Amino acid sequence: MNELYITDLDGTLLQPNGTVSDYSYSILKEMLEKQFPFTIATARTPLSVLPILRGLPFRLPFIVLNGAVLYNPVTDKILSGAVIRRDAFLEVCRIYQHFNINGFVFCVVDAQFRIGYTTLSTENMMAYYNERQGEHADLFYSVPAMETLADQHPVFLSLHGKKHVIDPIYAAVSQIDGINVTNYQDVYETDIWYMEITSDTASKYHGVLRLREYLKPKHITCFGDNRNDIPMFQGSDYRIAVANAAADLKAMADEIIDCNAADAVTKYLHSIYQKEYIYEKADAWK
Questions:
Q1: What is the mean pLDDT of residues 191-199?
Q2: Are residues 150 and 218 in the same domain?
């Protein structure tokens, strides 16, 4: 494989309402059917990614949960997961108890996700849980204490709320050795901030490195918009920011294209598909 293209989803490939436009769907479907070397890197889980991308024939692994996991969309299996060190996870639990908060803990069990929690204590947690019932109901399980998940291969913790609530928790968790912690503003609800915790061997940077090892591309181009894309930019050869990107990401970019609402990523990729790209049979990974 000569070239690999990786894009973030929210605020980058997706429309401002979090969907793939009809234009992008049509173009990407054509390209992917010809095995164009294109994949995604996102903070989302496969539970929310797959409905958004339904019908698009992606074959290459996804970087999900901000690089904590490589996921195979063909087999619906986790290829690799960076487990949070036990002592670091228990220290996170201690800080959560100090602030009287809890959140979802994503674990990897038998190459599948399981999502542990103590109580559904906020409206946001209840909404997240309810939206993923039905076919995904069996992935969620409650535990009497968050510490009991330390032996369940935790790979990702997510917390979101108002900035004044998240900031002191972020400051405390940032002092823990053995983890990466990211906080950033939601692109849809701008008064909400996310805090996401992974192993210190997990980030979009590490996800890009794992894809390099797995697919062996000679060159990687990436697209992003937010602060959690900084590690992906650091791991790529050519970095493209959309016009609506955060200022610090734009400062790192080799090129700035139009905004996500204008389908700028799809248009950029389509121009390459039309004019330059010679297809390879990407059968090296299975």
A1: 89
A2: no
Same domain, 77 and 91: no
Residue 241 lies in a domain: yes
Interatomic CA distance for residues 178 and 95, integer angstroms: 15
Q: What is the pLDDT of residue 282?
A: 45
Average pLDDT over residues 134-159: 91
- How many domains does the chain fold into? 2
pLDDT of 281 reads 43
Q: Map the chain to HEC letters.
A: CCEEEEECHHHHHCCCCCCCCHHHHHHHHHHHHCCCCEEEECCCCHHHHHHHCCCCCCCCCEEEHHHCEEEECCCCEEEEECCCCHHHHHHHHHHHHHCCCCCEEEEEECCEEEEEECCCCCHHHHHHHHHCCHHHHHHEEECCCHHHHHHCCEEEEEEEEEHHHHHHHHHHHCCCCCEEEEEEECCCCCCEEEEEEEECCCCHHHHHHHHHHHHCCCEEEEEECCHHHHHHHHHCCEEEEECCCCHHHHHHCCEEECCHHHCHHHHHHHHHHHHCCCCCCCCCCC
Q: Which domain holds residue 179?
A: 86-199
Domain end: 199, 229, 246, which one? 199
Q: Across the strands, what pairs with 224?
A: 241
Domain co-membership, 108 together with 183: yes
Could you read off the pLDDT of 72-106 as tens digits, one per residue? 999 999 999 999 999 999 999 999 999 998 889 99
**Distance (Å, rounded) from C-alpha 183 to C-alpha 165?**
12
User: What was the pLDDT predicted at 277?
Assistant: 57
Q: Is the pTM of this model over 0.85?
A: no
Residue 245 has pLDDT above 90, yes or no: yes
